[in-house]
Amino acid sequence: MVQAYISGTGFHVPPTRVTNDDLRTRYGLETTDEWIVQRTGIRERRFAEPGVTTSDLALPAARDALARAGLKPSDLDMIIFATLSPDHCFPGAGVYLQRKLCLEGTDEPHFVPALDVRNQCTGFLYGLGCATSMVRSGACRHVLLVGAETHSAALDLSSRGRQVASLFGDGAGAVVVSATEEDRGVRGWYLGADGRHADVLAQKIWDISKRPFIPQDADGWGRVAPEMMWAQMDGKVVFKNAVERMLGVVMQACWSQGIGPADIDLWVFHQANLRINQYVAQQLGLPEEKFVHNIERYGNTTAATIPILLAECERDGKLKRGMKVAMVAFGSGFTWGAAIVDW
Ligand code: ACO
User: Fold this and answer.
1) Residue nearest to atom 49 of ligand 1 (CA)
2) How does strand 78-82 pair with strand 142-149?
3) CATH of domain 3-183
């Protein structure tokens, strides 16, 4: 039977570093480095410059992953793009990346299909489930899966927005999911959602039940109230549910695979909050050296956290062929997921 494995990883983060102190001194947020580090583990994040889009961040990550896989854009059978901060409302970021990667500046234009995934922090794992299914079914041989975010453009960088604004950063990660006859690759993925909590962490911007969907002034300009414009979050509810759902989905994944947490060589958690992940790791009895993180340098890059961490671990030699890897995520929706991969 054809298996689906990760043949290449890539990542890209914008160069501008924003430390916790910068949030205070540069943007005027009433916060401290100590407050943010103690509660989240975040020390700094990257912000893209104005003019940079999410598909711009995704492009070098995608090229990096393709190069590591030894492939060209024309080898791709599908692009899957997970993001909550697409370039525009529509079309999705996938077609913008497809244009830059497969159509512009090439003698080999390639009209590969592009699918967008809207599952926030769990978007990469939902995308991995789709990519794996496409490969295993025989529909595709190589699927590019990207998770990328430009949060900095949509954060309320004032004291009013500090609870959310201090958590997020920009970045992009990518993997290529490829077919193989070898006995390796994605062994299983486990996804869940609980729409009863859809409003606990949400950025609404408009209300489609209203006519027009954004209030309009006499000159035709749309006016968006701050509570609609910016993401709203009940942090304590997110924290509690994240811990419960991540533990639950890890147990489900291990049980389904007939393994225990001790059989996993590397744990790649979504990087939302170091305290959430440490609590889950402690409950599972995971040793420190198998539990990797980079949230201190990038903050929460939502759909990009897992592929960025995978790419960094591969380059650092922490992730090697033959290892059993667990990926776990939780996010807005609520949505959650886990995947077990023999690297
Ligand atoms: N700096 C300083 N003070 C702050 C900040 C900040 N950045 N943000 C909030 N505060 C203040 C609040 O205004 C409040 O002040 P008050 O008591 O005068 O009203 C006080 O700190 C306590 O606020 P809480 O919201 O109760 O703080 P809490 O201890 O719950 O920590 C946090 C907030 C860090 C967001 C926590 O709830 C959390 O980590 N939740 C998980 C959220 C998360 O990870 N979301 C990521 C997206 S979802 C995902 O990816 C899983």
Assistant:
1) 331
2) parallel
3) 3.40.47.10
Atom 48 of ligand 1 has which residue's CA nearest to it? 331
- Which residues of the chain carry a pLDDT beneath 50? none
HSE-CB for 199 with a 13 A CA cutoff: 4
Catalytic residue among 20, 119, 121, 140: 121
Q: What angle do CA 326, 271, 310 make, to 5 degrees?
A: 50
What residue owns the CA closest to ligand 1's atom 10? 163
The whole-number pLDDT of residue 1 equals 87
Instruction: Kindly report the protein residue whose alpha carbon is nearest to atom 46 of ligand 1.
Output: 272
Question: What region, left, alpha or beta, does residue 22 occupy, with left being phi > 0 and alpha being psi -120 to 50 degrees?
Answer: alpha
Is 241 touching ligand 1 by the criterion CB < 6 Å? no
- The verdict on whether 119 is a catalytic residue reads no
Tell me the pLDDT tens digit for each residue of 50-61: 999 999 999 999
- The H or E element that residue 278 is part of is helix 274-284
Domain boundaries, the chain: 3-183, 186-198+231-342
Whether the CB-CB separation of 185 and 250 falls below 8 Å is answered with no
Residue type at position 186: V
Q: Can you give the length of the chain in residues?
A: 343
Q: Can 300 be counted among the known catalytic residues?
A: yes
Distance 235 CA to ligand 1 centre (A): 6
- pLDDT, one tens digit per residue, over 71-104 is 999 999 999 999 999 999 999 999 999 999 999 9
Are the CB atoms for 244 and 332 separated by under 8 Å? no
Same fold, 3-183 and 186-198+231-342: yes
- β-partners of residue 24 are none
Q: Active site includes 12?
A: no
Q: How far is CA 245 from CA 33, 45, 61, 71, 177, in A?
A: 29, 26, 29, 37, 26
Mutate to test the pocket of ligand 1, among 163, 197, 236, 269 (most ligand atoms within 8 A of CB): 163
Interatomic CA distance for residues 238 and 166, integer angstroms? 16
The CATH superfamily of 186-198+231-342 is Thiolase/Chalcone synthase (3.40.47.10)
